[in-house]
Amino acid sequence: MTNKSDAKIININNDFGYSKPLKPFIKWVGGKSQLLYKLQKLLPSANDNTYKKYCEPMVGGGALLFYVLNNCNFEQFYISDINCELINTYKVIKSNVFTLIHKLRELQSAFCELNKLEKKDFYYQIRDKFNSTELNFSTVEEKAAYFIFLNKTCFNGLFRVNKNRQFNVPMGDYEKPVILDEENLLNIHYALQKVNIVCGDYSLSKSFIDNSTFVYIDPPYRPISETSDFTSYNSVEFDDNCVYLVTVYC
Ligand SMILES: C[S@@+](CC[C@H](N)C(=O)[O-])C[C@H]1O[C@@H](n2cnc3c(N)ncnc32)[C@H](O)[C@@H]1O
User: Is 74 helix (H, G, I), strand (E, B) or coil?
Assistant: First the structure.
């Protein structure tokens, strides 16, 4: 939870208590920010009391989740994803956002001072550290900071790992990437206090879902060709067999 003495002063200016609308804290392949204008029409209307719970078992960058947290009155929330590095970052934002902000500020200022060649060296050093640091109790904040740094500076915000689970995306070409958006992270931190965050298969959400649950599930797309690899959010592939299971399950 928030340590109030550390809290940045932010002006609350909407009904939900955020200083400005929440937005995804990372880029994510298949992210639905551009399609929100269509998806929002499918959400229950403000005076529909049928749905009390919101469940998004393949949350990714959470474009719809954040829209819902900005605009809807669900009482309980459940999000999950098979990508444990991603879910670790959601959890750290929820439970220890100030340490994360501190680490991101250090990364941001170190990175911005460098010339192009030095930036490249720095990027690959962080990528090596990310790959060689095992995700465990003592490394959660460090891993979350590296995860956000890599997402903001790598090619197209892609998350791709090889079969050895090593993140292998090359550096992107951004002049001044915004590695730390403190206000958005703080707002997300407040919003996530009411969200149950789970790392694992979408099927785990079954225990949360009942008649009053609105479920949004956005599985990976089929690859556009046999060699295309853009569904690799994780070292475990998601394929048509899994899509079949999602259909049966929902
Ligand atoms: C198309 S993306 C979701 C994008 C998200 N709607 C957004 O706006 O960013 C699909 C997500 O499903 C996750 N995923 C793949 N297989 C999964 C599984 N078996 N269970 C849960 N999540 C899974 C991927 O890690 C990825 O984040």
Answer: coil
Going from the Cα of 220 to the center of ligand 1, the distance in angstroms, rounded, reads 6
**Structural domain boundaries in the chain:** 97-193
Architecture in CATH for domain 97-193: Orthogonal Bundle (1.10)
Write down the pLDDT at residue 19: 86
Continuous segment of H or E residues that includes residue 77: strand 76-81
Ligand 1 atom showing the smallest separation from residue 221 Cα: 1
**pLDDT of res. 239:** 59
Sign of the torsion formed by the C-alpha atoms of 228, 231, 235 and 239: negative
Q: Region of 157 please: left (phi>0), alpha (psi -120 to 50) or beta.
A: left
Mean pLDDT of the chain: 88
Confidence band, pLDDT 50/70/90 cuts, at residue 234: low
User: Which of 25, 40, 64, 81 for mutating ligand 1's site (highest number of atoms within 8 Å of CB)?
Assistant: 81
Per DSSP, the residues of 128-152 read HHHHHS--STTTHHHHHHHHHHHHH
In this structure, the strands spanning 213-215 and 53-56 are parallel
Q: What's the rounded Cα separation, in Å, for the pair 122 and 106?
A: 13
pLDDT digits (tens, 9 = 90+) for 117-149: 999 999 999 999 999 999 999 999 999 999 999
